Amino acid sequence: MRITVTVNGTEYTRDVEPRLLLIHFLRDELGLTGSHWGCDTSNCGACVVWLDKTPVKSCTALAVMADGREVRTVEGLEQAELDPVQQGFMNCHGLQCGFCTPGMMMTARWLLDRNPDPSEQEIREAISGQICRCTGYENIVRSVRWAAENSNIGAAEASEATEVTA
Amino acid sequence: MTAIEEQPAPVGYGRMHRKEDPRFVRGHGQYVDDVRLPGMLYGAVLRSPFAHARIVSIDTSAAEAHPKVKAVITGATLETLNLAWMPTISYDTQAVLATDKVRFQGQEVAFVVAEDRYSARDALELIDVTYEELPAVVDARKALDEDAPVIRDDKEGKQDNHIFDWETGDKDKTDEIFASAEVVVKEDILYPRVHPAPLETCGAVADYDKITGKLTVWETTQAPHAHRTLYAMVAGLPEQKIRIISPDIGGGFGNKVGIYPGYVCAIVGSIVTGKPVKWMEDRSENLMSTSFARDYHMRGEIAATKDGKILAIRVNVLADHGAFNGTAQPTNYPAGFFGVFTGSYDIESAHAKVTGVYTNKAPGGVAYACSFRITEAVYLVERMVDVLAYELKADPAELRMRNLLRPDQFPYTSKTGWVYDSGDYAKTLRLAMDIAGYEELRKEQAAKRDGQSLMGIGVSFFTEAVGAGPRKHMDILGLGMADGAELRVHPTGKAVLRLSVQTQGQGHETTFAQIVAEELGIPPGDIEVVHGDTDQTPFGLGTYGSRSTPVSGAATAVVARKVRERARIVAAAMLEVSADDLEWEKGRWFVRGDPDQGRTITEIALAAHSTVELPEGVEGHLDATCVYNPPNLTYPYGAYICVVDVDPGTGKVSVRRFVAVDDCGVRINPMIVEGQIHGGLADGVGMALMEVIAFDDDGNCLGGSFMDYLLPTSLECPSWELGETVTPSPHHPIGAKGVGESATVGSPAAVVNAVLDALKPYGIRHADMPLTPAQVWRAVHNNPFRTDLAIQ
Question: ipTM > 0.95?
């Protein structure tokens, strides 16, 4: 099937098998390897990307379902400068092996867009469909809170603020 | 959220952002599945649906006819290369692809190489295997029965499923103490089979260049050098022609130590097709076939006085090793470091016997942050101390306090011969109790004991033994457990550190740069840490058993000190003084008594590469190498307190609070240390409450997906409350002890003890992990079940 998908603002047209998973389309067809495949069963969330501004698990979505729609991945998180969520994960040690991080950050960005000042419990609920094996979630929650509290900070400014908040 | 520190990156130890993070937050990590090579093909493994069956025939003709299939490899193909079987790291053998029988569900039977991922999977469906099903050995406690089917009939003359017996301690003295003790408690305790389940599954990209004969393998491995040597030994490939690259790894936890058949198949696939071959297992393959952890059936006994002085500990263990003995332990330690089961206590005698058996389950047995079976040992002793407290009606914290080793007893030789390096245990336990508000919690619990809402408080105190290890005692397949480091300071004063160990998220690129920074005064940002590539790094056994900081951290400090001494000679030549007259301050040698006369490490680096005349016999440049052979293990420890609320109506457990006070000696980057502890605590909650790989009567794996193998999410985990004490290791160059597995080792007992503390009003002394709602509910009704089998 021929599909046209806008990924991180760029339009791609490709012939794909109808059964091709969205995660494999992004990783293998487009070379966007920031989103990861982790479990097959929608449990781990390493593959979370946005489909028309909603986080989806791209291991259980078909590429053809994205036809004519917009996808945003971790590679599209950084605009002119790093997103506060990315900065927060670095500041608060919100990642270790980094495998779950892209999916976590996409969900965090989605949460903050709808709820700019989430409580710890709201953050925990937002990321509860995703698994991290390294951090015990503590510093992921702190990272998202940091992003909420520093939503207007530019990357240049943030990297000047060298404090370690974990 | 307040900033803890506001300062630039420290030139040495301290909190510092990780150097590896900028690539990860941009999605630019390079994991094995991100590797794409021109012309790359994809492999997939056909696996056994049965736990035990004879292979009657394998017909691959339809798969071979698939237009996108390039090769189909079976055990018969591998036999022609003498590769159908490979040695395990425990001197056993394991089938790469089954030839005679399949011995566990999920075992590798055939390997397909095709043009793309999906076609490779399609072709698996076209392979026709005829099996003749055999009765399976599922219950480890029946593996040694006379009528048990013999699993390893490939081994000549093998008539049973026995692997080994191993004993430690003084049996006679221990039995004597038990015979006359005022109080003896006994309990059967299962540490069920669990799985490390790193978020990234295992995989490899193998690229064999038939012209140069060079084999390059990108692998999800925690031990790249060991893999290179083993491939050379097994496949007969010349070792200098093998390059193992372990790029970014999405979590290891022990799962990525051993060599899996899939890696070997990818290599054979590349040799056969002449193209690079990628193989990545899926989640079910990871859970069903790769290194599991635990599966220890333990009978623990404690002899004590009526007033709670522990006198002796006796343990009998049945260890389920699965179908092939692939447990990764140092050669002389078939039960790993289980010998530290005497825990943190001052006792008179101890004895343990461990018997290993084959079952029709996946092989393996090192994995999941266990420090070579110390997880099992700590869980056993910490559960048993609570059993004793139950019988004596004693407070579990007080009972521990009464029996903990005293600071003046260190270095302490345990009754099983382990030399604990340093500790002030009571101080650490007291701090944990203070942070938790232990007395207040007990009061709250007493007020709540109305049978409706149950609250439990669990304590555990663990001592770890990490940093394997002294090479005269410890080796893996004959390879001594010493690790190398190489440090080179460039003319402009920037440095490159090359390490044998490899990171799966521990932040080596940051921590090890900080060690060099501390020793030489070069900012961490100016130090590149190279690791995970056998062509670029010195030999060593890799990252597991919390050994990176104890072993390679020491190697790094030693190599930096060697460079510092060379710098001293160069500085002396520059200043035209005797090297003996120089003193060091961080980053600079100066003339004693005349601090203005000095040279910085940057100036010295340039001079070392320049025309400055050096004393006779002194080489130029500024570099050094080191192989660190640990004189002893290091012994981190900690006190953990968990508070749970239990709903007796549904059996649901909620972890309300978790206090963890760790003493891992000197902390190089406290931020990273705390992160490691957080992760281990989540592991502990997972194992205590959710995680288990059970099997039904036919040997079907009941934990083969994340729908069945439950991992803790952000909602099961509380906000961790950490504390620290610092007791440096006296024999380690920087006093560090290692911390990667401490929390995984120490926390399950705290959670389980808390739940059973909550259930005390029901007269329940013990129930096995995982304490799922079903298990807790059954325990409340005095009928807990065996969690390793299908629920009866």
Answer: yes
